[in-house]
Hints:
Order of helices and strands: HHHHHEEEHEHHEHEHHHEHEHH
Structural class: alpha/beta
Shape: globular
Number of domains: 2
Number of helices: 15
Strand content: 5-15%
CATH architecture of the largest domain: 3-Layer(aba) Sandwich
Helix content: 40-55%
Low-confidence stretches: none
Strand order of the largest sheet: 1-2-4-3-5-6-7-8
Mean pLDDT: 90
CATH class of the largest domain: Alpha Beta
Distance between the termini: 53 Å
Largest sheet: 8 strands, mixed
Radius of gyration: 20 Å
Amino acid sequence: MKWAIRDLLNPVVTRSLLYGSDPFDIEYILKKVDAIKVMSGKQIQAVWLGEWGEKIKRYTELMEKAESAGRRIAARAYAKMITQCHYACFMINIEDLEHKREIYAGLQESYKHYISLCDNKVEYVEIDTPFGKVPAYIHYPDDGSKKSYPVVLTYSGIGSCKEELEMLSDPLNERGIAVITPDMPGAGAAIISNNIKCGGPQLESAFEAIYKFVEDRPELDENNMANFGLCMGGGYAFRATVKRPTVKACVSLFPLLMNFADQSSIPIWMKKGKWSSYQYSDDYLDGMRVLEEGTHGVDFLMAYSDDDNWMSPEATQKLWDKALGEKEKIYIAEKPSYVSEETIMHAMPVGEQYHWVKHEAADFISARLNGGK
């Protein structure tokens, strides 16, 4: 079977769209990729990175022009576009680790400039763990001057970063909730800058450290918390809730527990290569078994699909059965659009529906933290 070259980029395109990249920019660059005569991973990478680099230059010119004229709204919009371009580059599974670091540095710096133009306060923090510092942002719904905020802890998995987690924080900020978006072990600056690999002990320490961090911040209400995660982060949110049964809600969108997953369905690009191997700790799968332990009785919302190619219906049911309190499901019936045999991505079905699922999830959490339930 012959695939279109662009099919190889399906996971990257999906996540870029989720992060808000302009679909016309994406299509323009995909057409450049389509023009490649011979299927070559290096050439696809070069075209993808090069074309996004040109977009970055263009939007930087527009942003600087807007800033110099005092047009803050336009400058903020262009700054976000620059960040989205850097993010599209970061999603490529680059084997050259130094090049990966350079790309992420561009994403970090562009994001810092973008949040400096936002109306709400977004504060960079570092959370101490036994394995090193976990970088994170606190997204306040306003200027951060109130004495107390309900707070949601967000999680994502391998290949993600705290900058991406803004898509989880935005709908919660709109509902008056403060949100912490950490680089979990194996993700973002936690792995790239601080060498905190993804493994069971590292994750368990991160959960505990994040809770301790909230306890030490007087404006964040430790008695009014929820956990919220997507993909691997959905599994993290569940385990974090097991460890702190006093939280008021847990939301897992398309949760993935690697030990529950069908290992033969996990694409090769996640299991082999310098970048993939660099993110994981030794004895990774054995260590991750700790995430399966325990149950919780808090209000639980789970989004899932029969088209999950990693978590079988039986595996998803196994996690559902571990939630013992009040619980609700969002079933994604729509077939995913971005699919090809080797590139199908675990989070596609719910990811492609995130534009409406996020409001269901945010309202579920808001009802528990803002006194509605």
